[in-house]
Amino acid sequence: MGNDLRMSDLVFEVRGLTKVYRSGEVEVRALAGVDLTLQPGELVVMLGPSGSGKSTLLNILGGLDHATAGTVRFREHDLTALDDAGLTAYRRNHVGFVFQFYNLIPALTARENVALVTEIARAPMTPEAALDIVGLGARMDHFPSQLSGGEQQRVAIARAIAKRPDVLLCDEPTGALDSKTGVRVLEALMRINKELATTTALITHNAAIREIAHRTFYFGDGRITSVEINKARKAPSEISW
Question: Would residue 55 be called left, alpha or beta, if left means φ above 0 and alpha means ψ between -120 and 50 degrees?
């Protein structure tokens, strides 16, 4: 996985993870026995068709959903043993989320959108520092309507990382963007991963993005079908889709 990873205690250890959704008589098995580990400072990409279990796994890793069976350990903590209050505390203190849609508050500037998180975090960076990391230091007093889609997504990333999370979970962060704009967003994510050593998991339908990852997990029918180690990572500007 390269010498740029800090090989110490695992950030995540997932064993036999199963998630079943029930609606009346209908049972949908979203995850069917997933095993994986994530290392400190690792950037992984999760690839697979819709319905293959990627988002369900990300939601369980992020404490947004409960597993039906199996275990998820975050460092020394068993997430599968936590109640809703415990998962809320875990999310608040350890996890940053980035989704396909930015969910910025239109009436607040970029700086103010990020400050919403820094005001409740334990040891946050300043909104200015977070926006500078994603390359928006000159745009922090602009409102979302004054920003492009890619800039809005980078504000969302700044908001996610401002509380200095251990883990950054990204679900289709470039899904609504063209390739040129998507590259800027990936550059921001790679910079955060490198400079802050934030363990990062990124879901995408875009197979080309796997070239920026340390490892790629391929999903199918609720399982990880294969894992690919990337021995020669590319910069976002070097990939095309």
Answer: alpha
Domain enclosing residue 219, as ranges: 39-66+95-238
**Domains identified in the chain, total number:** 1
Average pLDDT over residues 206-215: 94
CB 195 within 8 A of CB 183: no
- Kindly tell me if the per-residue pLDDT of 104 is higher than 70: yes
For the chain, the C-alpha Rg in angstroms (whole number) is: 17
Residues in the chain, total: 241
For residue 8, pLDDT beyond 80: no
Burial of 106 per CB tally in 10 Å (0-12, 13-18, 19+): exposed
Inside any domain, residue 26? no
Element (H, E) at 116: helix 110-118
Residue 5 has pLDDT above 70, yes or no: no
The structure's pTM equals: 0.89
